[in-house]
Each structure stands twice: as structure tokens, then as C-alpha cells.
User: What shape does this take?
Amino acid sequence: MARKGLMPRSTAFCLYVLTAFLLIFPIPSVATTERSDDEKTSPPLATNGQPFPWRKMRLPETVLPLYYDLFIHPNLTTLDFTGTIHIQLEVLEDTSVIILHSKDLRISKAALLESSRILPLQVLEYPAFQQVALQADGVTLTRGSRCAVYLEFAANLSESFHGLYKSTYRTSEGEVRVMASTQFEATSARAAFPCFDEPAFKANFSIRICREARHISLSNMPKVKTVELSNGLLEDYFDVSVKMSTYLVAFIVSDFVSVSKMSQHGVKISVYTVPEKIDQAEFALNAAVKLLDFYDDYFDIPYPLPKQDLAAIPDFQSGAMENWGLTTYRESALLFDPKKSSASDKLGITMVIAHELAHQWFGNLVTMQWWNDLWLNEGFAKFMEFVSVNITNPELQVEDYFLGKCFEAMEVDALSSSHPVSTPVENPAQIQEMFDDVSYDKGACILNMLRDYLTPEAFKIGIVRYLRRYSYQNTVNTHLWDSLTGICQSDNLDEGRLGGGFCSQGKSHSAASKWYTEDELDVRAMMDTWTLQEGFPLISVEVKGREVRLSQERYLKSEDPTQTSGFLWQVPLTYITSRSSTVHRFLLKTKKDVLYLPEEVEWIKFNVDMSGYYIVHYEAGGWDPLIGLLQHNHTALSSNDRTSLINNIFQLVSIGKVPLDKALDLSLYLSRETEIMPVTQGLSELVPLYKLMEKRDMEELENQMKGYIVHLFRGLIDGQSWTDDGTVSQRMLRSYLLLFACVRGHPPCVRAATELFRRWKESDGNMSLPNDVSLAVFTVGARTPEGWDFLFEKYRHSLYISVKSRIKSALSISPLSHKLKWMMEQSLQGEVMKTQDLPYVVVTVSKNPKGYKHAWDFLRDNWGTLVKKFDLGSHSISHMVIGVTNQYSTREMLEEVRGFFGSLTEQTGSGLRCLQQALESIEENIRWMDKNLPLLQGWLDRWGPKPGA
Assistant: This one.
């Protein structure tokens, strides 16, 4: 059961008096134009020209919010909102001013309740830092005392995707309906109500929402009562929340309907959607029940709220948000129809729900102290997706996809513009930039590596200890490492939990393993090397008889040697050999070391199943026996081991450690591969080679490369059925392969897809297509103007979000250039195609050889609008910047991109990390093409399919 707090009766009375007082005494009005100031030489100036009494982006720690009483009225007719807030405060240091956050709010009244006095407050605004200062003449608040502030405020509903914003949807009859929803992470609670908007300022919240009778309201806690007001409106009162950070507060006013179930642990779980899509909520409801029960048992800490709502929001920028008790999602991340949704939809929805529910413990119950350690939230939630879904839904085969996350992180982490997992950040744009592949995917991968290092049982004990020790508190990196250290020492939090000789098992390992010896098991020392420095190690291996010589260096695609010196990791190496399938372990703590094998071997494979966040180079001919093994007996290695070899060898080509022809020699074995991860990894290494050529005038070599890839996978492609049969991984592989083959114009694929599209179109879209192959069918159909227009009409009128997603993808893959431009413009307008989908549309068009120039022009021409709509530093902006530019490989385009980025100001994003990443990627592409094109031409002449083959 969740603990519930009630406001003391005396405080409630005082706040009532305070409210009455303010009806008589409004605050003094202030000017609204901001004057320039030089912070270094003079105090910053408030909007009324007075000195602003604080000059830092972070709030002072002079007062601590204990309790918020928030009333808010989102008016869905006038598209604005009004509100009042009482904040109880504890004074930590003597102060004459209270600094808190407010962004674009019109504060009309303010007062202080202190020592039974009610005093009017002056409000000074400093928009540059999104702060306001509250002060009363001659009043100093003394350390150890308590007080309260009361504020009245108003603002327009946001037209962006953050703060308290407007969302719309269109019914099947064409009626447009409006709702209001919140998205406060990371720094947007301040745009909905004045607050101490930093994660360490945790407090309890009491929320009241005013609405019309035709709507419902939702918030973090259950509704306890509804009162009818004299003007015919209704006011919903919600129970007092647990202690939490402002970014987790949430509320919705809408016409949603719901379905509900009780979990085994007595939590009411509900899924809310627009009325016409409620029949697509059942899958998410069942998944959420199963996953919340799993986490409750796994963490051995009861979920502390009485309910968990999952709401599908029609307009939503990210995938989902973990607001405590009211998780919000894109419709595509929550809604599922068994007759219309694909295997990848099922996997994706389950994973997103698993991620947000993991946050109810990692992030909500225990929260990072500051955004520099965002990975403690997001890395853990990403990691727990795989742990939870693997156990609760084994049929989804999630273990097949984890290492793909590590490869995605490494793409970013291989650039000199990468950042440590734990990185100092201050302003909102820098904080937004932390929501990237490094915080999510690298965070998850290093946790997986640590779990493998400690053993799953020990790791679980450590993280449960961490959650128990720091419940309702804030943490930093070291709190986690300390919780994972000394797990065999007595601790009243987990006494009696270790059994079966677990704590003595370390002593059974040989000393030569350099793994479990007492002085080596320093979790903090090891993990600091992975979280406090950017990048990852390249491990070079040279085998001489029984001697294995090891060395480490930073893997970096940049040619700047100053970026690689001074980096050292503690690397938990794992390996198998031709003589032993047992996983052997070796902790590499120095630049160079040597390990000794019991006997000579034909081959050695490090980083077993890619459980470690590093790549491996086999020197002195060490790649040759592994390539030979793949050619003659590839199943001797696991699917993940084969996948990691494919990835590693192509990454080594990029830095000149391995010649391209050797990597291509390894790829030849793929003609016999059938598993999803090696096949998709092979495609993800080979396809970008011709994608680079599509942006240049080199059609002959480009077609040779395309021909080689189709030829390589031809047997596997031609063996696919146009059905939804098989396991989830088999179905997802089928979807991937048939789409690839049809886009490449493989005749059998195009013929089958053309016939299916013809029959589907003749049925006016009523014929049931196999969901896993429908994207390939739609893509072929979208090649003609008539087919494109027919698909677009089906897109407009479909209520099935998974069908809409596949049609949208097919439309953006079309070779019809004018349609691609129109699509991007329509997505920006947001009336027919949602603006939330614009980043995806722009990036997909940029991969299209008929659209890449349009995508760059669109990004450049609409930059100002985009950074307002999606927020500076957001993943959406980063995704577009990198996605649109990362296939350019000419010096002309490098200069064009550099010129545009150089024209930006700080306000329009000149300091964004993604701009540097984009330029680095283009420079790397230029180097790659200059060095490897002749090799590629020669190899394809020798090994590629001959014309007519």
C-alpha cells in the first residue's frame, strides 16, 4: 500500500486566509521587456530593470519545498490555463529572497505566509535562466523556520510538445477534438506552474484540476472526489502524492476512455486512449499487469502507488514518459491490434512499457541528484527492458537485440565529440542533449557488462540494496557502486538473501584468472573508468603459442591522436577458444598484459556474446582462422559472437587496422546465415557503402555493390514466405529482408508485392494483408502516383496506428520526389500528418536517393521553426541533424553543412553537440571513400556477381 500524506489542518487554514488576502492585494506589476546585462561585471537585471538577486543557472539551496498544493484549470476552449499554487517551504539558510523557476508564466499575485504574517511579495523575473525571485521588504527568513508562498499564474497552452500543451485528434467523422497533456522532463514543469524544477527538490504534491463535464482529468494519484462549481465546471481532487521530483508530475484533461485490471499485488492498472481506439488497448493492459508484477517481485520493493495509468497521447515527441502513476506514450508505443499489428509492433510496445515501468523504481523511487547522472535513470530502464521482457515474454526473444543497442551507442561513442556517461551539464539545452544513445544504450551496455562480471545473482542483490537504501532520495554514481561492492558482507537490508555458497564461490576461481581475487573486486574503481571518461577501448590480441598478448587503446574514428592518449579502462575480458567452449575471464587493468593458455589453439574469440562494451582486433593473422571458421562451420560460434565479429571487423576498417577486402572476405559467409542479428548486422555494415555512393555520381560501382548484397542474401530472401508465420525473430527478419529486396528491385520480390498490392487496392484496402510483409507491399505500391495517392488516403482515414506507421514509411521511401517534399511540408503543418512524426519523415526522406537534397534543404530552411517546436538539444533535433547529414561524403557538402552550422547563434543551437557529431561523420565518410573505393572496386570485380548472374 502507498503511504498517503495529508496537509496539517493549521496549514490548510493559513493557506485559506492567504488566498483571501491575495484577492485584495495583487502583486506590483513589472515591465515585461528584458534588458541586456553583463553577468561577469554587474548583477543580472530582472525584466523591470531591477538587479536580480541570483546569478547562477542552478537554484540556491536556501529553502527546500516540502509540499505543493496546485490548482490548475486548462481551458480547452480558449486554449490557455490559469492556476494557483501554495508551496510549503523549510528554510535551510537565512535568506531574504526565494528563487524558483517559472517559464513563460504570467504571475499576477504573490504572498508570503511566515510566522502568522501574510505579506505581499515582489516578483522579479529573469527569463534567461527561467527564474523568478520572491522578496518582501524588510523580511529575512531564518534557518530552521517554515513558511509558505502563494502564487496565481496564467499562460497559454503550449504549441510545442513540452510543458502543459495542446494535443488534438480527428475522429472518424472528421471532427477535431482538443485535449491538454503534460510533458515535464527535463525542465518544463516550470512552464506549467512556478516550482523548484530540479530533481533533488523532491516534495509531496496535492493536485486539483478544473474541467468541463464532458472531459475527464487524470493525474499521478487516484481521484478522491469531484466538486461541482457554481459556474457549472467540475473540480477533481487527487490524493496526495508520494515524495517526488517536479519532472514526474503529470496531468491530463481529455475525453479519453479506459480499460482496467488489477495486478496480483493489488495495483489498479488502466490504459487510456481516445474513444475510437480503446479496442486497441488490451495488449498493453495485459503487458503492463505482467511487467508491474514482475518488477514488484524482482526488486522485492512494493510499487508504492495504488494505481498505474498508461495513456496514449495523440501528439507526443518522445516514445513515452515515466510520470509516477501516469505514464504517457505515443499512440504507436501503446496501441496494438492483433489483426493489424506486426511482430515488431508487439516487441516494440512491450519493450516501451517495460522501460517506463522500470522507471517507477529507477528514476522515480530513486532519482539521480542532477541531470549529469541521467544514465542512472535511463541506462537502468533500458537495461531492465531486456531483463524483464526476457523473463515475462520469452517468446519475444529480446536477447537477440541487446547487442544492437551497444553498436548504436558505439557509433556515437567512437567520435571525439562523444561525452562521458556522467557529464557536467547546466542549461536546459545541455540537459536535453543528455537524452542520447550514450545515456540510454551505453548505460545499459555497461550495466550488462557489470552484471556478467559480478554474476546475475550478485548484481541483483546489489541493485535491490541500492533501491532500498535510497528510496525517495537522490543519488550519484558512487552510491550505485558502493551498493554493488561487498555484497557478501552483512547488511541488514539483505541479510539472509545469499545462499548456496554464493559468497565463497569467488575463491574457487584460479588466481591466474585475475578476476575474483579480493584486491581486484573494486566495483567503483572499475566502473569509474566506464562512466567518467568518454569512448570505449579497442583490445588488440596477438597469440604466440600459449601466450596471448593484450593491449588497449581508445577506439576513435577521428584522426586526432591527442584524443586517444591518457585513456585507460578496467576491461573484464571474456574469451573462448577452439579447444574450450567454457567462458574464460581476465580483467585487463593496464595498457598491456599477457595471459597464458593451457595449450595452443587454432583460434580465440574475445568478448563472448558481446557482453562487454569493447571491440577486438586480432593481430598477426588472428582474423584468418576466425574468417575460415565462419566460412566452414559458422554455427560453432553463437549468433551474437558472429554478429560481433561482423561489426568489429568493419569498425576496424574505418581506422585502418584491417583492410576492407578482409572485412568483405568475412562477409561472404553470410550467404549461409539465417539468424536475425548476424543478417541484419551484415546488412547494416554493407548497405551504408552504397548509400554513400548514392550521394555521388558513381552509378556503376553503386549498382555493383547493390548487386553483391542482393546476391549474398538471395537464398534467404527467396526462401521467405509472404505470411505472418514463425517466431517473432523469424517474422521480423522476413519483414526486413523483403523490404530490402523490394526496394532494391529484386524481381521475385517486386512481382509478389505488386500482385498483393493490386489485390489490396482493388478491395479498397479491405483485403487482409500479412502484417509483417505489408510494408514491402506498400513500398512497391507507392512507386506510382496512383498507388501513392491511394495509400495516402488510407493513411488519412485509418484508425490503426500500426497501419498508419507502415504506410507513412512506404510513402517516404517512394521515388516520387515531389511527393517527398510535400510530405515534409505536411508533417510540419501537422494537420493531416502529425508533426511528432516529422523527424522520422525527414530522416527517411534523407536516406532516399530521390529525396536527400530536399531533406537537407528542408532542415536548413525550417531550422528556426524546428528548434522552437522540438526544443534545443532534444533528441528530435539531433536525430534530424545527424540523420540528414551522415551519408554525405564530399568536401563540397562538408563545406555547405559547416557553413550553415556556422551561421547559427547560441539561441538557435550553435553549441549543440549533434552539429559537431554531424561534421565528424562527414569527415570520416570522406576519409573512408578516399581510402577504400579502389579496394572496393577491385574486390567486387573479383567476388561480386557477374552481369546476368
